[in-house]
Amino acid sequence: xxxxxxxxxGNRMITLMAAFVLVLQxxxxxxxxxxxxIRVFAVQSFLLAGIAxxxxxxxxxxxxxxxxxxxxxxxxxxxxxxxxxxxxxxxxAQEIAPLVNVPLSVLISGGLTTVGYVVAExxxxxxxxxxxxxxxxxxxxxxVSLFLIGFYMMITRRKAIMQVLALLSLENGLFLAAISLxxxxxxxxxxGILFDLLVAVMVLGILVYRIxxxxxxxxxxxxxxxRG
Amino acid sequence: xxxxxxxxxxxxxxxxxxxARKRPAMEMINVxxxxxxxxxxxxxxxxxxxxxxxxxxxxxxxxxxxxALVILLTAFVALLCSIYAVGYFRDDERxxxxxxxxxxxxxxxxxxxxxxxxxLFVFAMLxxxxxxxxxxxxxxxxxxxxxxxxxxxxxGRATSLEAAWKYAMIGGVGLSLALFGxxxxxxxxxxxxxxETLAGLNWSVLVKNAPQFDKTTMKFAFILIxxxxxxxxxxxxxxxxxxxxxxxxxxxxxxxLSSATLNCALYGMIRFYILASxxxxxDYPGRLLLLFGTLSIGISVPFVLVQRNxxxxxxxxxxxxxxxxxxxxxxxxxxxxxxxxLHMTFHTVAKSLLFLxxxxxxxxxxxxxxxxxxxxVIRLMPLAGTxxxxxxLAIIGTPPFSLFQSEFLILRAAFAARHYVPAxxxxxxGTGIFAGALLHVSGLVLGxxxxxxxxxxxxxxxxxxxxxxxxLLILGFWLPGPLFELIRNAAQxxxxx
Lengths: 228, 497
Hints:
Shape of chain B: globular
Number of strands of chain A: 0
Distance between the termini of chain B: 29 Å
Helix content of chain B: over 70%
Largest interface: A-B, 48 and 54 residues
Oligomer: heterodimer
Helix content of chain A: over 70%
Strand order of the largest sheet of chain B: 1-2
Order of helices and strands of chain B: HHEEHHHHHHHHHHHHHHHHHH
Radius of gyration of chain B: 21 Å
Number of helices of chain A: 7
């Protein structure tokens, strides 16, 4: 048997890529520059598309190829381009200036990854080797960690555009969860989610642009006039 | 076949409004489209009453009594608000409320934005109720957020940008939780119903197989769904976007958000509640719902008591009512769910009317602060003032208005089900809300105020208010037989008995 027909090999590939996805997420937490962050997100999405492709190939789930292609087109190419153009257009300072300093953030991300593994553990089903969950507990744990770290980034970032990016990486975690648990959602749902994501980035992009114009800053902590 | 026009009409109206050149054309397109939509919604309700369920396109669209009720309410509010919006925006134009109103063309652009996005928003809400696939339902609920972001920023104030940002971000995070919940539901079901097929997430398929789902996963999924769609419904502690968004959005949009969109978010939650209660049993989701419901009712009390702005007062009031409905769902059983459905119906009528009245008052006095208006609205605006007070009395649950009946029913159900703590808290918090809302609004309407010109008759705005007020009044004494039948069937779907 050639190695590219061996499901074990596929599993190892998926786990490897999932590990890189997690590393990139933590890299995003400690990155200082906005544009770099957008590119890290693009690479992360590229790896996700790769995982989807690998699952589609080794587990004979052809509809995942379409999801993989769309993920690549949208999250690796279209959205990063849109976001980078936005950054250029509003010409903001490149430094991110997070609320929590980098070493502590990395430590917290590590903690959140542990939480992800604990949560994923509770989904382990015994004696069901045929279920897609046997793709590896690792993938689900990574997905939950991505979700939690994305959450954490949203809370600690002050720049509006970084919050958008955090929301997107959080969504990456969901995509990974969907493909690792059930070979992805039905195609129509996957299409709908990606379409919503595209519109959401457009809407949020326009909003960011107008916030920058009105407040002369992208610091969302300045958005605090409505109270009570 | 009837499901197709219900979705097609608002889409077509959106496209036509986008292409329209002049303001009257856009107004007419919206009013006519929503009138037609309302007729179709009534026809759908009638068909569902006769046939039980209707489906289309291989079960992709699916309507039972619960969806028919939500569609009927959505179509009613949409029609009401489209009539009101005509007068409201004409008045806005006269007052030059739009900031860059120098060229005149900017106003038309803003109106086009409103009249194009509103039908799309309504389309998304209808799709929530009609989609059989729970993933598609999620997409539609997300679409209700995306279509309303620019409605909230319509006036282009700095504060409306702030409100829209909070709305979009909190909504986005909330809905991502809901998506996670949907994925987990799919996972807990896929061994039973078979994955990779379109029907794998169809509610009509899932509900038949719910008892065999994986229980641990379903428990986890329901928590995520509750948090996710709860954010969209604005229950505590994820409610913070609500007062901002409701007070910054143009009044007709706020009226739709506070009634129809709330129903849609609850509808999503109810669909999953049914799955969870069949899979686990009603106790587990019930406890969680009671916790969050009571918390929402409680958290709105201090804000209602010390509120300075009447549109924000109404927003906190909506948080209270979202809490009441979630509590009713948590109580469950035939009685609790009947109370929930009745309350949803009555709340939709009363709350949209309240926002419209508040809008009329806001446009007349050009402020929404109690302090600046002082009082005496009833003397300057006889119609809006009277109806405002009447609708407030209705919504805080004074008899003979119908909300008294539904709240009393929920309370009785809670006692009957031995949920004593939530029931007592419900009464306690309810008293606080009652006192706060009555104090503020009666002061505003009846109190001593400055003399001024009496508001003239505004045909569109006042017609909409009168129409809705008479419906609210009639519902207090007489609930039409077929409507009650629909409500009862919807409650049966939820409670399963």
